[in-house]
Structure formats: structure tokens, C-alpha cells
Amino acid sequence: MTGANIPAEPTTILIVDDHAVVREGLRRLLTAHDMRVVGEAGSLATAQALAARERPDIILLDIGIPDGDGGTAVTQLRVSSPTSSVLIVSRREGPELVRAALAAGARGYLPMNIQGQELVVAIRAVLADPDRVVLAVSRTSLDYGGDAAEPLSGREREVLALVEQALSNRQIASRLSLTEATVKRHLRNIFVKLGAVSRIDAVNKAAHGAQDRLGGYQPGFGQQIPGYRG
């Protein structure tokens, strides 16, 4: 048998929600799209144990899990399974919740009433691009405080400048004498502060005037990158 004939491994999913009917609905949806649900949890404690044992590709998390606390739940699950990507699927949203989740390392924030196909697309997008953040929230949930928003730090501006030059995380880490994990952390903070969902989006938003209130980042070209539609 040649490599081309070996079927791809299915995407593995851990569902974390304290409502059994929600878990059942998600399981049916995901299995219908050739994904494999490796565990279901109604509490954060159970989810941590399952995540550590199963190491799923994706963890779907309700931010309102009773024994969890927003960004803290994301952090604890990422500690249990560092290679898993956490996607929030929740009835609750708001600027503080979205910001805390993304700052803790969540790869997306989606409403519970999202269409099934949109959820599948979001999961596949996150797996295909390790730097992509997927958001489907109201405009007010992306309002992190207007002029009071926290400015980009000097290091974050350095990272963003190198992102503009199309350097990879590894190249940025080498250029700035950082680890790749630190570069990814800076990128997540940049995404949160700019309300961006990808590297290109962050550069474009900086180029379109976000720098005026976010610490004075000065892009090298001041125009939108071709191929991106904001």
C-alpha cells in the first residue's frame, strides 16, 4: 500500500459542556463529518483528566462550565493537553470573556447557536493554520474599551513588524532571540489588543489606523495586504 492510499486520521474532539443534550448534539454533528469524539465532560475536572489521557486535536469548551472560570478553564485545559486547540462554544459572550479566553490561548470563540457547518469549518480552519483565531461574536464583544485599550508593548510592536515582513514564528524567534512559544504568546496578545483574527488581519488593522491608540506601531507600507478582505 502506498502512502497516498493510507486514509488520514480523523480529527479527535473532546466536548466540554455541562448540558448532556448539547454534548449529544455536538457529537452527532461531528461524527457525521468524519470527526471522532474521544470524550465528553460535564465538568472542568473531568475534562482535564480526559484531555491529559486522550490528547485531542480540538477541545470544544463552554466557557460557562460550573467549575471553570473563563480564561482559567482554557489555561488549565492547555496545561492538561498542550497540543490541543481550545475552541469556545458558549451561550455567553462579552468583551471581558472574549479577551480573557483569547489571552489564555483559546483559538476561537463561537456562539452556541452557530450553524453546524460553520462549526466544522472553524475546526478545520484552526487545524489548518496554527496562527489562525476564529471569532463569530457580536461587534460589542470585540470592543475592548476604545481609547482605554491597552497599548502594544515594545516587544509586541517588534513582533508585528516582523510579521509584516512575512517571517514565520521560527524566524521571528531567531531574530528576536525568543522561543517560538513566546512569539505565539505575543501574537495572541496582539490579536486581542487589535481585535484581529489572523496575522494578516493584525497587520492590516495596524496599517488602517489602530496604531493611533495602540502604542504607535508604524507599518512599512500603510496599505491593506492584497488578498485580505476585512
Short description:
The protein is α/β, with parallel strands linked by helices and 230 residues long. It contains 9 helices and 6 strands, in the order βαβαβαβαβαβαααα. It is 43% helix and 13% strand.
What's the Cα radius of gyration?
18 Å
Distance between termini?
45 Å
Structural class: alpha/beta
Give the name of the CATH architecture of the largest domain: 3-Layer(aba) Sandwich
How large is the count of helical segments?
A: 9
> How many discrete structural domains?
2
Strand content: 5-15%
CATH class of the largest domain: Alpha Beta
> What is the name of the CATH superfamily of the largest domain?
Response regulator
Give the spatial strand order of the biggest sheet: 2-1-3-4-5-6
Largest sheet, if any? 6 strands, parallel
